[in-house]
Amino acid sequence: MPPSPPWALPPGRLAILSALVDEQRGLIDHLQQAQKVAHAGRNFWLGTLDGVPVVLTVSRIGKVAAASTATLLIERFGASAIVFTGVAGGLAPGVKVGDVVVAQGFLQHDLDASPLFPRYEVPAYGRSRFECHAALSQQLAESVQAALAEGWPAAHLHCGLVASGDRFVCGAEESRQLQERLREAGHEALAVEMEGAAVAQVCADHGLPFAAMRTISDRADDTAHQDFTQFVQTVASRYAERIMRRLLQRMGAQH
Ligand code: ADE
């Protein structure tokens, strides 16, 4: 991977968002000048991590919860960029449990306003894909690469499209059909989850940089629910902590 171009965070706080507490558990323990603000049924943790002003929170599962939380992060807590850290189901053949996907873009695989608009297109936006911020994603990918080399040398980094929908994909046949429908519309998705496209759309509305990493917890197949539960409880927070702190150290060095 070529070295990333210099990129500084815009003034404000970096928001670190996950759907579940286990996806970012270790990070709150390292927060300095920590301040907890309860709002709209969520806890928002303000402070600094590795010298970077941050706000951490958990959206809960699904696109509506994610969009609502992203909006609060921006409008109420001064987020100037959002990074999502969480888990996903692997869709593309080589994307295995324990690998990490850094999203280049998102689409909603359950959005279908046809025949008014082409399948997957977000009405009034004229597009189905929302791209992630290239430089922030590159910083994130380099942080993933370094963390994997140190802690999980057998795991691979993948960069590409991630599909989001309000459905836990838990069946080999369902997963195959999902990929086939996406492919017919010209989209090759690496992984599936339930929040990213919503956050990407909110960030696009507000003109904010967005990046996302997803550790693969399952293969979206018949055992996905068991693999997911076990992975989230035992492994996910360790990935998030190692990778996000590497990203923050890079950013802190630029502050
Ligand atoms: N997040 C993690 N695994 C998932 C799956 N199989 N479907 C949807 N979201 C997920």
Q: Percentage of helical residues?
A: 25-40%
Enumerate how many helices there are, as a single number. 6
How far apart the termini lie comes to 24 Å
**Ligands, ions, cofactors:** adenine
Strand tally: 10
The major sheet is characterized as: 5 strands, mixed, barrel
Oligomer: single chain
* The CATH H-level homologous superfamily of the domain at 85-252: Nucleoside phosphorylase domain
Strand content: 25-35%
The order of strands across the largest sheet is: 5-9-8-6-10
Low-confidence stretches: none
- Assign the CATH architecture of the domain at 85-252: 3-Layer(aba) Sandwich
Q: What is the C-alpha radius of gyration, as a whole number of Å?
A: 17 Å
Question: Which CATH class of the domain at 85-252?
Answer: Alpha Beta
Sketch the topology as an H/E string, one letter per element.
EHEEEHEEEHEHEHEH
Which term fits the overall shape?
A: globular
Rounded mean pLDDT is 94
The name of the CATH topology of the domain at 85-252 is: Rossmann fold
Structural class: alpha/beta
